[in-house]
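Pasting two entries for a bug report.
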Amino acid sequence: MGVIASRPPCHISLLFVDKQFHRKGLAKAMFNEVLSYYLPFTECTEVTVNSSPYAVEAYHRMGFADTAAEQEVNGIRFVPMKCLLN
């Protein structure tokens, strides 16, 4: 169905959801689970991610904003993004 990985202090390393489960809230639920793990132990005020161009709109729906234009490093295209936490 889906997988999420993160690294301290507050960065989403990867987030994938099987196509048949897109737009059903699974990514948001996994993201919220990661937040519930980090927040008690850190003073994170934002979460960052380097989104694939394909996933940018999904991250926008989860509250992320672009922090720079699309980039390519070592042949990997991504859009740097962050989500401010309350």
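Entry 2 (this is the one that rendered wrong in the viewer):
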Amino acid sequence: MDMEGRLAAIRSRIEAACRRSGRQPEEVTIIAVTKYTSLETAEAVLAAGLTNIGENRWQDVKPKWEAIGDRAVWHFIGSLQTNKVKDVIGKFPYIHSLDRLSLAEELNRKAKALGLAPVECFIQLNVSGEESKHGLGPEGLDEFAGQLAELPYIHVTGLMTMAPLEGGSDSARPVFRRLRELRDQLNAKRILPYAIHDLSMGMSGDFETAVEEGATYIRLGTVLVGSQS
């Protein structure tokens, strides 16, 4: 199946998940995860009508970014080391992996120095509690959000998490549901000077469950672009 065919099948599944949960498909943005794939695959993603591209290592994405530039909206979806901020700042409008103050401060400092707009960041939470996963523990969310409220070049657009790889929807659903609850609780407490809306959750194996639980961004790799190309 070609890219257009895979995308059509994915959109059909998103629409069905939205019907089951009383949502509209327009509320869900697909991020095409093109890490480990070629420039040609990224170009095929754009040709199929998707504009949001997710990558996790600057050294791998550099030739794609240089060729594609602002024809795509770039999302940094991997763990970001503080010393790598200089490589991605100004190139990736969205950072999905903000999980510590030192990283936030460096993003804030670089954005200010370069005269950039505030960086759109998702706070990454390790809702499942797995040691193998990056992210802040949910118990630290309120304090971290309060710290971010003091950084003018950081704008929290939402929360991000990853579900366990094993267990299917039975293990994924409570994780996604909890992330939505944490977003709603954060908004109710008004720790940030604005409400956050977005939830970045759901990948190839569990995106339908994520949509049912309120995902606004889903990060799709294998199901869309294949394992490698």
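Dev reply: Rendering is fixed now. As a check, the viewer should reflect this: The two ends are 14 Å apart (CA to CA).
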